[in-house]
Amino acid sequence: MLACALLATLPACEGTKVTQIVVSVATDLSIPGEIDQLSFLAGYRDSSVSAVDVTWDLDANRPDAIVIPARIAVLPSSSSTAARVVQLEVRGLSAGKLVVARRAALPFARDRALLLGMNLLRRCVPVRCEPDESCGEGGCEKVDKNPDDVPDWTEGNERKSQDARAGDGFNTPADGRTSDGDGPDGDGPARDGPRADANRDADAGADGD
What we know:
This protein is mainly beta. 4% of the residues lie in helices and 32% in strands. The chain has 1 helix and 10 strands; from the N terminus they run ββββββββββα. It has a 4-stranded mixed sheet with strand order 1-5-2-8, covered by helices on one side. Strands 4-3-6-7 form a 4-stranded antiparallel sheet, with no helix packed on it. It has a two-stranded antiparallel ribbon with strand order 9-10.
């Protein structure tokens, strides 16, 4: 099982031991001109069904719209599931159609709040990566992440992650691979039949079994 929540407040006090992945999403795409919805998917790699699949409006003229930068916390339901690899995908949509997406996969790290920056970049809209890659600040990057290489969540680290959306180190693939985006691969995030809560102010949710 997985639990997911869109956080309107800080995920935890710095120094508090909490096992979770904090996904930070910023964008340099215009809202609502280029994207007007944010979709988030998460699940275990070894499962055939998806645990979390939720979409939020970004257009401030729509009820319950959220604001980017956004922070999404993903937590294991128990210590026994923490070692399983979690697949994560963030999508920017316009009128329900995919504009750009970003994927990552990693296990939880015990007693750590991992900060995973998954910014949606305009430069990635035309880029097509290999199946085991996803477009980010450095161009086509490996989807699989090692928790040892992922920073802990702090407010300072999150600000740095969001500032990186400018992508000065971005390199378009040398072979010029381009498409309509780095959309979902054939496998997609898994659904493990768990409860999945996604909310803006901890007063609304979406459940999936």
